[in-house]
Structure formats: structure tokens, C-alpha cells
Amino acid sequence: MTKAINLTLKVWRQQGPDLKGRLETYDAKNISTDMSFLEMIDVVNEKITLEGKEPIAFDNDCREGICGMCGAVINGRAHGPEKGTTLCQLHMRQFSDNDIIVIEPWRAKAFKVIKDLVVDRSALDKIIQAGGYISVNTGGAQDANSILVPQETAELAMDAAACIGCGACVAACPNASAMLFTSAKISQLALLPQGKPEAARRAIAMTRVMDKLGFGNCTNERECEAECPKEISITNIARMNREYLKASFISTVQ
Amino acid sequence: MYWLTKTFTTSIGKKILMALTGLSFCGFLTVHLIGNLTLYGGQDLFNAYVEHLHSLGPVITLFEWGLLLLAIIHILTGSILFFQNLISRPVRYKVNKNAGGRTLGSATMPYTGFILMLFIIFHLFDFHFVDHTNQTVYQIVSNSLSQIGLATIYLVAVIIAAVHISHGFWSLFQTLGANHPKYMPTIKNIGILFSLIIGIGFGFIPIFIAFIV
Ligand code: HEM
Ligand code: SF4
Ligand code: FES
Hints:
The structure holds two protein chains of two kinds.
Chain A: E1 4-13, E2 22-32, H1 37-50, E3 73-74, E4 77-78, E5 100-104, E6 112-115, E7 118-120, H2 122-129, H3 151-161, H4 168-172, H5 179-190, H6 199-212, H7 223-227, H8 235-250
Parallel strand pairs in A: 1-5
Antiparallel strand pairs in A: 1-2, 3-4, 3-5, 6-7
Helix pairs in contact in A: 2-6, 3-5, 5-6, 5-8, 6-8
Chain B: H1 2-9, H2 11-36, H3 43-54, H4 58-87, H5 104-107, H6 109-128, H7 137-145, H8 148-175, H9 184-212
């Protein structure tokens, strides 16, 4: 049943990348529990704007949990307390009247705050650029089913491909490691025939670039898997480790 | 050789070093525990075991240097991982909450590891680098462990080792790529069982010497 609740928000406000930020307190009054978290911020922003102040900056696009643009740390939890949901799909019915909600941006050396809750996640793009693709020289299209892929393998690849690149795994990892993201991208390609020819080069290049960008080292804490809105499994990280070992010891890639 | 250093200096490479050295330590602890169980058989049995061990001569020396090398790799790599991970999040969260992935063992790896290093140094100076001419190894052990203070140090250190291994064991398999829905639950259970065996097996020795003998 729809209810209206009153909340106190403590939101990270920061004017620009190299400026000091701090938590500011806002009242969110009369919030319908049917609203999404982002709609709740919209309501608060409208009030802030009418007061002649700068609204809270945050990233978002699809608002249906598929684009990977949204995300913030809500009371210490990436994308909020609900499992397997993005922030845009988190509903206010997850909260109670008079709750205090602390909203912080993703924190990692590799993710710089641009403004308020908006962070620069282009580091993830750089990991993709290092090898998260397949090279196809176009020609005549192949017949469907000319390369057979077992259903189970296709499912595993699809599960890995569900990653929307939101960065919550980095935000939730105690070491700010990007292993879950990178392993999902490596897995989705390594599992399928089209990804195999470049698998060795990809595994090594993506790992090295990931390190260079300042992400931490995975220590198998499993916080990423618990927070990922697409519930990407750490079995992908094990697969990435295998791909790395294979590439290092039985391929010619240096 | 260039490719080999490159292989072991990436984040995954360093983790593989931790996993291989950690696995070796698990093997060492198993052998060490089996040997130490002779303590429960009394003075003669234990001294006979020590005698036998020392009669292996150069083999033992080889193993000692090997263990030292593994320890140096494990501790240096662990320290590098710790400091790199520390600086990978320069601005910390105001509110921290676990989502259910972390365990006591996983969250404390560098700290339990550091205490273990201190303990191992102490342990070597307590038992290994002492005058062996006028006393048997059993006497060295019982003189030390019959002091409540020292017995407590040993007990606590062993519990800390068990906590370290409770995460380390399954984690090393994950690092080496051996995670599969079919057998990961078994690996996790063996890890818990192994850390309990290490904790209880070694932990009962100081209690036995201090209170029962
Ligand atoms: C001597 C001092 C020691 C230090 C400073 C130390 C430190 C560490 C550190 C920092 C890690 C990395 C944790 C992680 O990546 O999550 C680690 C992992 C590990 N340690 Fe130790 N440790 C020590 C002794 C031992 C001993 C005596 C054992 C024996 C069983 C052991 C077994 C392991 C295992 C199995 C791992 C897991 C490797 C992996 O995650 O892939 N460590 N240790
Ligand atoms: S692995 Fe999950 S948490 Fe990480 S970027 Fe992909 S969808 Fe987001
Ligand atoms: S706004 Fe697209 S996933 Fe949330």
C-alpha cells in the first residue's frame, strides 16, 4: 500500500573534482513509498532549485536498471540495501519513516568525483579498450549455427554479459578492485568461439591496464558479488584467473 | 625471463604467488602438526621423533631454507598487496557496511598475517635458536610451555593462524582458478575443517603441557 514517509538525507556535495566536499543535510518530506530512489532525489532537487540553490548532481539514464549509469552508496551499501537492484530500481518502500539516509559517491582512486554523486568511470572504458572486444573483418555473414555453442556455455556467457558496467563492484570492494567487472567482460568473450582467437592477448592486456589505472588487488572478499545489481558471480573471477594463467604459460603472448 | 617477471607482478600474478606460498604453508603445517602430535605420547616418543627428523640432515636444512624463501615471498607480496589496496581508495566512505561477502578471516588477512610473522620469529628464537647441547627438545618445549604467559602466546597465535587459514584456504583455490559450482562448496568445507584441525591440534599442545603434564 502506498504510504508517505519523511526522511533526512545526508548527501555528499562537492563542487568539482579537486575541491573539498562534505555531507549536507536535506529533509525529504512526504515521499511516496512507490517512488524510486532517484525520483525521491528529483523531489528533493526540485525544492532545492526553488530555493535558488544548486541541485544535487547524480548520474542516470534509463531508470529501468539496464544502462548502468546510476549508482551511489546508500548507508554504506552500493545501490542501496536491496539485492540485485540498481539505484534507479530501488524503491522507497525499502525505507521507513524518519530514516536517516547517507548518500555518497562511488569511492576509488580510479573513479574521480566530478561533482556531488557523479564520478568519472571512464577507467572501465579503458579496460574495455585494452581488449574487451573481438576483431571481425567483415565479409559474408556466416550461416546461423555453423559454429555450435552448447546451451550451458551460452548461458554462462549471457550471465557474464549481463554486466552493465555500473562500477558498483569497485565501489563495494574493500580494495576498490575492478576484478568482477573485468572478469565479466573477459568471460563473456572467452566462453564463446568468436572470443577465443584473441583470448590470451585479451586476458593479459586487460589485466595490465586494470592494474595501471589504480584499481586495487582482489582478495576474494566477495563483497562485489553481493552488491552487483546483475548478480555477476565470482566464478567469473576464477575464470579470469584461469585465462590469465593459460595466457601467461601456454600462449605465445608476452 | 621478462615475461615471467611480468606474469608475477600484475595483481593476478601477485595473488598467484600468495596462493602458491600459502598452499605450501598449509602443507608444512599439516606435516608439522602430525610430527607434534608425538608430544601427546610423552617425552621419549617426542624426542625420538626429533632425533629422526634431525638425522635427515641436509634434507631438513634444504626444507628450512625453502620455507624461509616462501615466507619472504608470502610476506613481501602480502605487504605490497596491503599497501596497494590501502591507496586504491584515498577518500574513504563515511558509512561502511558489509553486504555479506566478507568474513572475519577475509577482513583481517593482513593483520592476522602480520601477527603470525611476529609469532614465527618469536617461536624460532624460543625453540630453534637456543642451546641444544644440554637439554632435549622436549625439555625446551616443556620449559617454555609450562609458563602460563608463554603458553597463552602460543594458544592465541594458533587461533590467529586458524582465522588466517579460514579465508586463505578457499581463497587460494579461487585465485588459482579452481572455482566451480560442483566442488567449491567442498573446498570451502575442507577449508573450515582444516583451520579447525590446525586450531585445535596445535592449540591443545600448550594447554596439555601447561595444565596436564
Ligand atoms: C608469516 C606471516 C604471514 C603473513 C604476513 C601473511 C599475510 C598474508 C596476506 C596479506 C595474504 C593475502 C590475503 C588476501 O589476498 O586475501 C595472505 C594470504 C594467504 N596466507 Fe598468509 N600470511 C602469513 C602467514 C601465513 C601462514 C603461516 C600460512 C599458513 C597456512 C598462510 C596462508 C595463507 C593463504 C593460504 C593465503 C591465501 C592466498 C590467496 O588468497 O590466494 N599465511 N597471507
Ligand atoms: S560486475 Fe556488476 S557491479 Fe560490476 S560493473 Fe558489472 S553490473 Fe556493475
Ligand atoms: S539509470 Fe540506467 S541502470 Fe539505473
